[in-house]
Amino acid sequence: MKTPLPLVLLISLTNTTFAAETPAPEKPRPNIILIIADDLGAEDSGPYGCKGVRTPNLDRMAKDGMKFTNAFNTCSSCSPSRSSIITGRYPHSTGAESLHMPLPKEQVTFVEKLKEAGYWTAQAGKWHLGSDIVDRFDLVRTDKVGKTGITKDGSGGELWVNTLQERPKDKPFFMWFAAHDPHRSYSEGTLAVPHKPEDATVPPYLPDAPPTRKDLAMYYDEIGRLDGYVGKVMEELKREGELDNTVVIFITDNGRPFPRSKTSVYDSGIQSPLLVQWPGKVKPGSTCDSLVSSVDLAPTILELAGVPSPKTFQGKSYAGLLADPKGTIRDKVFAEHNWHDFAAYERAVRTPQFKYIRNFWPDLPATPPADALNSLTFREMRRLRDAGQLTSDQMACFVKPRPEEELYDVNADPHELNNLAEDPKYASALKVLREQLDAWRKETSDTIPEQRKGDRFDRETGKQLH
């Protein structure tokens, strides 16, 4: 007769067997929301030091998450920038490098990779990517594909909360929430309590005149409206109990829609706000000064989701910076400007200290996009120019020919007004940056168009030519 095992030992063996047979619970994959502003300058929100604009929800995102101070878009033109973000490729590598060019269906995006990995994917708001990649999302709600519910001159954010509410509750989700704000055109009455002209911060390359200030105040109103929709998304996540397991990323597609900003490769055109909130993972109130590019966003999102990046991506993940904001992933970023209402071909490389710009068609002036060309600001600039009252810093949009090369010390000259390209003291830096740009163009097969695509509008009057 066998001796019975002691009760304590029996319990111990039972627990050991149970532990060995029961796998550890899987960590839930994070939900991811990408919020894309349309034409928001990096400097024009509370987290980035603009005191005149009211952005309490973006301020809260920065307080609760991480602010990147050196994030840049690959270009300062709406649809090419979005194509670059979604493919992790530079605009000239996407087949959609110019305004309104649809993203070709053969392009690989990070969205279908999330979808294949079990994420439910949705888009709501502005689209601007063409019709060939609509199927990458489980749901698309936009002004270009299907019914929208967006009111005339609306923000696009009207659709965001409903999209969140209608998602399946048994899957992690990815949301591409794209606003129309603060894209032109502007009108009074966007906010119940509008910003005042005296609230505006006028950069030195624009005239500090009443029309400019009025224009900027209406621009601020649309930023404020966008900020309100950001807040509604955060409230809905909290209501659903999903806030703690959701990465929320806020960016813009390009800079403010004013002269010498949007469609330029100056920082005012390509620098982006970048806020990342992820409770328990990203330290509240943290700041990352490392260089990152919008081409890096696709691999970053996939890494956060635990999904491998395809070989087509040209960017680098900065997911590691969310835990270690003092780290670095790159020492330079690249940007480009192609056709956007007007013929153009410029390239730039940006380091922590310098910006190098090459104007391949210097005979063409740096004309702002058509929406800014017809703005209160640019009309005032033309009037002041004709009266001989613009400063040299404010004449950049009218100068032709432009210099073939531009070099700026962005630390000493953040508005990029003092061109150092012909200063012998900077010859060595110029040579290095020139070579870096050439190497990048060769590596990414960037070539000058054989023919210039003609201007769509008259560069002086803004009238449509064809």
**If helices are DSSP runs of H or I spanning 4 or more residues, what is the number of helices?**
12
Q: Give the fraction of residues assigned to helices.
A: 25-40%
- Overall pLDDT metric: 93
- Summarize the biggest pleated sheet: 9 strands, mixed
The CATH topology of the largest domain is Alkaline Phosphatase, subunit A
**Assigned CATH architecture of the largest domain:** 3-Layer(aba) Sandwich
Explain this structure.
By secondary structure, the protein is of the alpha/beta class. The chain folds into two domains: 31-322, 3-Layer(aba) Sandwich (Alkaline Phosphatase, subunit A), CATH 3.40.720; 336-443, Arylsulfatase, C-terminal domain (2-Layer Sandwich), CATH 3.30.1120. It has helices at 7-21, 56-64, 78-87, 91-94, 110-116, 160-165, 210-239, 267-270, 297-305, 370-373, 376-386, 427-443, and strands at residues 31-37, 66-72, 120-125, 139-142, 173-178, 246-252, 271-277, 286-288, 292-293, 333-337, 346-350, 354-359, 405-409. Strands 1, 2, 3, 4, 5, 6, 7, 8 and 9 form a nine-stranded mixed sheet that branches. Strands 10-11-12-13 form a four-stranded antiparallel sheet, with helices on one face. Helix 7 (210-239) runs antiparallel to helix 11.
